[in-house]
Design the sequence.
């Protein structure tokens, strides 16, 4: 299969190496606004380089992977759909809610297969948690906790275009909450704080966020994020039920040390990035996309899924701005 990648920055180069290691992929073509980034990755992996998006999409692709900046996702996805090429797009679907809704309509009408990059759906522990919750193993679910805590903040230039911490960071938590529980969020109440670099506040963002979500069956979910977790990269999820409790991320790399005398767990070392934390999940995700591109399976993470996660992020952002709970019925979506 011949796969094209637009965007050869950190995650794009990482995905390129992963795709190069898949038996079904025998040819890669790269494009980046910075030609040197594309050429560097191509030299490493024996790929070819296109000089434009149009040239990339006209090169006989079996699949198109979008790993460029958030502001480019929507136009590139439109181009992929117009070319009729099965497309993988890193989250988010688009930079704002209105365009996200338009893209869902476009993709649905086109019938072009599109998969969105929420890699936690492919992590073995999250899948085990989903099985336990939806199979009734934990009894009645009362409370969930989910967090995305980065070990260090992103570059200053990234923050103004990120969409804010809830859309950029916690959107992964919002998607995986839906995946694990099979439920939808109905209300969101969020707060945020800035105690780190001033550039977060200057961009209208926060470096730490928290939200209380209510699901449609009355379950409460507590979600948090921070750009400054000195213990390491920390992504976890806990489910507390009437018949038991189960957690994702409670392993030797847990980004904590214990204050209890004599306790040496966890031995470490902690993860230092999302690529370190989710390497096998990324491989499973892109393996699935190859099957989507071949027409063997439907998309396991659709544009409609991406829209639902983004709507929760939008509700949290509005709650943060207004200091009150926001109902998801107040957040626009596709008409029935």
Sequence:
């Amino acid at each position: 299969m011949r796969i094209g990648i637009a965007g050869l920055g950190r995650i794009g180069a990482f995905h390129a190496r992963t795709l190069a290691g898949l038996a079904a992929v025998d040819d890669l073509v790269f494009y980046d606004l910075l030609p040197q980034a594309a050429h560097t990755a191509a030299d490493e992996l024996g790929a070819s380089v296109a000089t434009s998006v149009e040239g990339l999409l006209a090169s006989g692709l079996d699949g198109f992977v979008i790993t460029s900046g958030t502001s480019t996702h929507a136009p590139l996805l439109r181009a992929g759909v117009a070319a009729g090429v099965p497309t993988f797009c890193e989250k988010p679907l688009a930079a704002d809610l209105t365009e996200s809704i338009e893209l869902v309509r476009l993709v649905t009408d086109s019938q072009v297969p599109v998969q969105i990059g929420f890699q936690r759906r492919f992590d073995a522990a999250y899948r085990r948690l989903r099985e336990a919750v939806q199979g009734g193993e934990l009894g009645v679910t009362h409370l969930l906790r989910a967090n995305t805590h980065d070990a260090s903040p992103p570059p200053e230039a990234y923050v103004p275009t990120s969409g804010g911490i809830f859309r950029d960071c916690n959107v992964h938590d919002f998607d995986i909450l839906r995946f694990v529980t099979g439920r939808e969020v109905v209300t969101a109440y969020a707060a945020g704080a800035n105690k780190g670099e001033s550039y977060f506040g200057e961009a209208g963002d926060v470096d730490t966020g928290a939200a209380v979500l209510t699901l449609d069956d009355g379950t409460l979910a507590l979600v948090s994020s921070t750009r400054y977790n000195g213990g390491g990269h920390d992504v976890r999820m806990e489910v507390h039920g009437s018949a038991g409790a189960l957690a994702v991320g409670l392993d030797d790399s847990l980004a904590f040390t214990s204050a209890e005398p004599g306790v040496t767990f966890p031995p470490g070392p902690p993860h230092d990035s999302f690529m370190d934390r989710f390497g096998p999940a990324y491989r499973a995700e892109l393996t699935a996309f190859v099957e989507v591109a071949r027409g063997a399976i439907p998309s396991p993470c659709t544009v409609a899924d991406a829209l639902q996660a983004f709507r929760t992020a939008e509700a949290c952002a509005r709650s943060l701005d207004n200091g009150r709970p926001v109902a998801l019925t107040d957040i626009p979506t596709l008409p029935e």
User: Anything to note?
Assistant: The CA atoms of residues 96 and 163 lie 8 Å apart. The chain has a mean pLDDT of 97. DSSP finds twelve helices and 13 strands in the chain. The longest strand covers residues 141-149.
